[in-house]
Amino acid sequence: MRCEVLIDPDMAKRGARMLDAMIAAAPMPVRVGKHYKGGTELLMVYGTGHPVRRQYWMQHKEAGGRVIGWDLGYWNRDQQTMRVTIDHDHPQALIRPEDPGRFATSGIVLRDDSKAAGRVLIVGMSAKANRANRIGRNQWESRAARLAKLDFPDRQIVFKTKRDTDPPLPAFQTLRGPIEDALRGASLVICRHSNVAVDACIAGVPVRCEDGAAYALYGKKKPNPTAAERLGFLQSLAHWQYTPDEAALAWTHIIKKLKST
Questions:
Q1: Is residue 87 within 8 Å of 61, Cβ to Cβ?
Q2: What's the CATH number for 3-96+241-260?
Q3: Backbone angles phi, psi at 173, to 5 degrees
Q4: What are the residue ranges of CATH 3.40.50 in the chain?
Q5: Which CATH class is domain 120-237?
Q6: Which residues contact 147 (CB under 8 A, 6 or more apart)?
Q7: DSSP category for residue 10
C-alpha cells in the first residue's frame, strides 16, 4: 500500500504539522507534493472542504482509491488535536464501540446544561462548508429556522453564527461568542453537520443534525439520547482524533478501519 500526501505552503500550520507527523510515522511508502498525481492506493489531505484539495479528493475516490482527511479536532483543540475521517467528510458511518480508555484521558465530564423550554439554537454553516456542499449563504439556515418555528411555536428561535464575522440571519436574534454560552439553557441545537453537535452532546443539549460525526448518535430522529448513549458515542469518537505526537497510533487506527471497510 502507498500513500500520496498533499501539503501546500499556504496550508494552516496545524494541518501541516499533523501531515508532517503522519509522513514521518508512515508504515508505507509516501509521496509528498502540492498537486495531486494519483496512482497510489491512499490519498491524505488536510481540509476536505478546501476548493482545490476537494477536487483532488473527489478525483481520487472516483479512480477507486481511498481518501483520508484531517481537520480541527472535536475537543481539546488547544492541545493540537486533529480529527480524521476516511472516504467521507465525516466518519459517522465508521464509528463503532471502542476502548473507553482514550476518552477517559480527555478530562471531559458530561454536563446537563439544557432547559426543556429553553431557546432553539440554529447553528450556521461555514463559508467553506457552503462551497463544498454547493449551498448558498444562509440558505440551509433559513430553511432550518422556518421549520423550527413550525415545530416549536412557543419557543424562542435564535441563530448562532459559525464565526463571529459571519452575517446574521434576518428576522432572528443572532448570537456570537463562545458556543458554551450559546448552549447553556438551550432546549435544542439544530445544525447541518457542525462539530457543535459534539459540543452539545457533552453539554447535554438535545440535537438535530443531518450529517457529521454526531449523526451516528442523533441521526435516527433521536435528539435526546441517554447519558450512557452519549458517553458511549464520545468514547468511540475519541478514536477519531489525534495529536501530531500520536501519529503512529493514528496510522494504526486508520489501517485497521481501511481493512475492515
A1: yes
A2: 3.40.50
A3: -60, 135
A4: 3-96+241-260, 120-237
A5: alpha beta
A6: none
A7: T
d(CA 125, CA 209): 12
Residue with cell 488547544: 78
* 30-33 and 66-72 beta bridge pairing: unpaired
Rounded alpha-carbon distances, angstroms, from residue 179 to 43, 103, 160: 33, 21, 8
Q: Pairing state of beta strands 241-242 and 82-86? A: antiparallel
Q: Give residue for cell 453537520.
A: 193
Q: Say how far apart CA 146 and CA 31 lie, in whole Å.
A: 48
Cell of 180: 458554551
CA distance 186 to 200: 10
Reported as a single tens digit per residue, the pLDDT across 50-95 is 889 999 999 999 999 999 999 999 999 889 999 999 999 999 999 9
Kindly calculate the radius of gyration of the chain based on its CA atoms and give it in whole angstroms.
19
Confidence of residue 226 (pLDDT cuts 50, 70, 90): very high
Of how many residues is the chain composed? 261
C-alpha to C-alpha distance for 49 and 68, rounded to whole angstroms: 13
Phi first, then psi: what are they for 73, rounded to 5°?
-70, 170
User: CB-based burial of residue 27 (10 Å sphere; 0-12 exposed, 13-18 middle, 19+ buried)?
Assistant: exposed
Q: Evaluate whether 80 touches 16 at the Cβ level (below 8 Å).
A: no
User: What is 15-42 written as a DSSP string?
Assistant: HHHHHHHHHHH-SS-EEEESS----SSE
Q: What is the pLDDT of residues 138-150, one digit of tens each?
A: 888 889 899 999 9
| DSSP state string for 198-251 | HHHHHHT--EEESSSTTHHHHTTT-SS--HHHHHHHHHHHGGGEE-GGGHHHHH
